[in-house]
Design goal:
Largest sheet of chain A: 2 strands, antiparallel
Strand content of chain A: under 5%
Number of strands of chain A: 2
Number of strands of chain B: 12
Distance between the termini of chain A: 13 Å
Mean pLDDT of chain A: 86
Order of helices and strands of chain A: HHHEEHHHHHHHHHH
Oligomer: heterodimer
Number of domains of chain B: 2
Low-confidence stretches of chain B: 1-7
CATH class of the largest domain in chain B: Alpha Beta
Radius of gyration of chain A: 24 Å
Number of helices of chain A: 13
CATH class of chain A: Mainly Alpha
Number of helices of chain B: 15
Helix content of chain B: 25-40%
Mean pLDDT of chain B: 84
CATH architecture of chain A: Orthogonal Bundle
Radius of gyration of chain B: 24 Å
CATH superfamily of chain A: MetI-like
Structural class of chain B: alpha/beta
């Protein structure tokens, strides 16, 4: 099968790409300075510093250090996080779950709301719904997240006082088990409506802040793609067949308009991931983004390298998925050679 | 009116059709008072150069014009649909007297006046259309079979249910499936064991109908073709698919908008042959829109020549080509090269098509006509009969209200 071959080929290239990314990550991080900084204090003597460097093999040549790092990763050891005061490998899954829950919530909203808004506006080009959507989209794409997030926080947390902050209520958190680390899923598994409501309620403001921009981008892309498709001959041909306008729009025009939009949705994923840093800081969300911000400020290199390596792999996988969806939507796209 | 003396009831009568377009420069009179009949079973060729309004006229039958900027400024398009003979599906049998139509079941409607829901029922069923470029008129993301199937879903739900062996009072999700009007949740309903079997039956019946529609256009291996995508086919094959789709429901009238312009010459000949063959077997009337005079001559029973939003000459093909009266028609014929034309000598009509923003009350061909005279500058000639079944809009053949009349002898430089 052509499709299976293609996926296999792409997956086989993956390790090569990861090695490449790891070299770049390692080099760039090392240019930023020695990782020993986070363990030092002002009272240490040069001898003590040298001793610490020797303990972590930092006195060896850089390429040897790289091999130590890669060998560690291969054995599941991503290093010690000075910020979390624990091994990176232990903390990472917990933080990842928090970020993923946030990113998925906003990503799904952006996907469906963006496509729906774009279709709605595109089908009513230059009429009132189109103009309203344009206002929403332009503001969404241009409002800085840190500003928009703080604005929502001031209104709904500080003034009205209905929005919570953080990721969950401590008492409710303690009441159920957390096998997946995604609190909404955990609540459903535990069968606890209170916990589910708590998890969703905590998600609302952060995902609106994070998802607004992505929704705007997807909606705009969808709208312009649909406007273009609606001028194609096949749309008139579909009408000439006697199809209802609803079918012409959904089955014919929208399907074609999704082709370029899918590419943008793939790119939006990066946008979301980058946005988590701001949003997590604003809402005290205990995810990867906040951890990374702290790690950058305090020079926690093991955490940083893991994060960058992980997001690169994630990007590669998302790109693969986008290509597959793309080929499925438009059969003129040929996969591979 | 114009063609009344010819007896046979017209399948469509266009009367004083006016379609304007709102543009930045003003209101363009794209079609400005066009009247003609399409007789039952005939092929009417509509010729004219680019921008003369022939496509807009054709699309008006299906109301496929963008509104805005299009303005349906006036006139009517009466459509006299005939029910297709139930016994032979239009081929012609004893029951219908070889007409292929059920007598006494005519319905007459003004296509420009009916509701959009009524219009939708006529589109693809009673009146179908073939487009210029089959590569653009087929949806690139759907397989051929699925695209033709939509016509049956839309107009042949009852037949589909009957052919699937289901009772005529089948309702619910299955009926919605057979009419392509799914509701939210139907996907799950149709996945239930009982419904799934019925859906399979409908799908099988549908595949049968689509395959036989494709087989009509003489494509090799229609069943295999159904799963293919438009980009996998050649231009000629795509146009055959379009024709299969258009003729799937045995329409009374087929609008063919330059269906061979995008094809190469050898394929063109075969497609024309196919259209003519299908038309003769099913007694379908055809409005054949083209800019190619020689092509129209080959396939049309009658020809209408359009210029600047008007019909300037209309008549039987043989008559028009033997005895063209309008200077524009004559110019077109002189411009068409033949085997006798010496190398490097191509006749052309001088000037360009006038802008149709606020046209003056004068002959539209003024400024390009070699015979123009005083009468042409102050009067707008109307279409008038010059011979049985032959009408011309030019003062050369009928009296002008005022001013000097043009003659063929007098050539203005």
């Amino acid at each position: 099968m052509q499709l299976r071959d293609y996926i296999l080929r792409r997956l086989m290239v993956l390790p090569v790409l990861i090695i490449g990314v790891s070299i770049v990550v390692f080099t760039l991080t090392r240019i930023g300075g020695s990782p020993v900084g986070i363990y030092l204090s002002h009272e240490m003597t040069p001898d003590e510093v040298a001793e610490i460097e020797a303990r972590f093999n930092l006195d060896k040549p850089v390429w040897v250090q790289y091999i130590y790092w890669i060998r560690g990763i291969a054995m599941g050891d991503f290093g010690w996080s000075g910020v979390a005061a624990a091994p990176v490998a232990d903390v990472f899954p917990l933080k990842l779950a928090a970020t993923m829950e946030l990113a998925f919530a906003s990503g799904l909203v952006a996907l469906f709301l963006g496509i729906a808004l774009g279709t709605y506006a595109g089908a009513r080009r230059n009429r009132l719904p189109d103009h309203l959507t344009r206002i929403v989209a332009v503001s969404g794409a241009s409002l800085p997240q840190f500003w928009f997030g703080i604005l929502l926080l001031i209104i709904f947390w500080a003034h009205i006082g209905i929005a919570p902050i953080g990721r969950s209520d401590a008492a409710i958190f303690a009441s159920i088990a957390h096998p997946t680390g995604l609190y909404t899923i955990d609540a459903i598994l535990a069968g606890s409506p209170t916990a589910l409501w708590d998890a969703i309620w905590h998600l609302v403001l952060p995902s609106i802040t994070l998802g607004y921009g992505a929704t705007a981008i997807v909606a705009r892309m969808m709208r312009s793609a649909l406007v273009e498709e609606l001028q194609q001959d096949y749309v008139d041909a579909a009408r000439a067949k006697g199809l209802a306008e609803r079918i012409v729009l959904k089955r014919h025009a929208r399907r074609n308009a999704l082709v370029p939009t899918v590419t943008v949705i793939g790119l939006t994923f990066g946008f979301l991931l980058q946005g988590t840093i701001t949003v997590e800081i604003i809402y005290r969300w205990p995810g990867l983004g906040r951890w990374m911000a702290d790690s950058v400020l305090r020079g926690d290199q093991a955490t940083l390298m893991t994060y960058v390596l992980f997001t690169s792999v994630l990007f590669l996988v998302v790109n693969l998925i986008v290509d597959l969806v793309y080929a499925n939507l438009d059969r003129r796209v040929t996969l591979g050679k | 009116m114009l063609d009344a003396q010819h007896g046979a009831a017209p399948v469509a009568s266009v009367r004083d059709l006016k379609v304007y377009f709102q543009t930045k420069r003003g209101i363009v009179h794209a079609v400005d008072g066009v009247s003609f009949d399409i007789r039952d079973g005939e092929t009417l060729g509509l010729v004219g150069e680019t921008g003369c309004g022939k496509s807009v006229t054709g699309r008006s039958f299906l109301r496929l014009l963008p509104v805005p900027p299009g303005i349906q400024a006036g006139g009517s398009v009466m459509f006299n649909g005939h029910a297709v003979c139930a016994a032979c599906a239009g081929v012609g049998c004893g029951a219908c007297g070889s007409t292929g139509r059920q007598a006494g079941r005519d319905s007459s409607v003004d296509l420009l006046g009916i509701s959009s829901e009524d219009m939708r029922r006529i589109r693809g069923d009673r009146i179908a259309m073939i487009f210029q470029d089959p590569g653009k008129a087929l949806n690139p993301t759907l397989p051929i079979g699925a695209q033709i199937a939509e016509v049956f879903f839309q107009h042949r739900t009852e037949e589909l249910i009957a052919l699937a062996g289901l009772p005529a009072d089948t309702a619910g999700a299955i009926r919605r499936f057979a009419s392509q009007s799914p509701r939210f949740g139907d996907g799950w309903l149709l996945a239930l064991p009982g419904a799934r079997a019925q859906r399979r039956q409908v799908e099988a019946a549908l595949a049968k109908m689509v395959a036989s529609a494709l087989a009509e256009t003489q494509v090799p291996n229609p069943v295999k073709l159904m799963a293919r995508y438009p980009h996998e086919l050649s231009g000629g094959m795509r146009q055959r698919v379009m024709i299969a789709q258009a003729l799937a429901c045995n329409p009374d009238l087929l609008i063919a908008d330059e269906p061979t312009t995008a094809l190469d010459v050898t394929v063109e000949a075969r497609i024309l042959e196919l259209i003519r063959d299908l038309q003769q077997r099913r007694k379908t009337s055809v409005l054949y829109i083209s800019h190619d005079l020689s092509l129209v001559r080959r396939i049309s029973d009658r020809v209408a020549v359009m210029y600047a939003g008007r019909i300037v000459e209309i008549g039987a093909t043989a008559e028009i080509f033997a005895n063209p009266r309008h200077p524009y028609t004559r110019g077109l014929m002189a411009a068409a090269p033949s085997a006798d034309t010496p190398r490097g000598k191509l006749a052309a009509i001088r000037g360009t098509v006038p802008e149709l923003v606020d046209p003056p009350s004068a002959c539209r061909f003024l400024g390009r006509c070699p015979h123009e005279a005083g009468a042409c500058r102050s009067n707008d000639p109307a279409l008038q009969v010059v011979a049985p079944g032959h009408s011309v809009a030019c003062f050369i053949d009928h009296p002008a209200p005022s001013g000097e009349r043009p003659t063929y002898d007098r050539v203005t430089a």
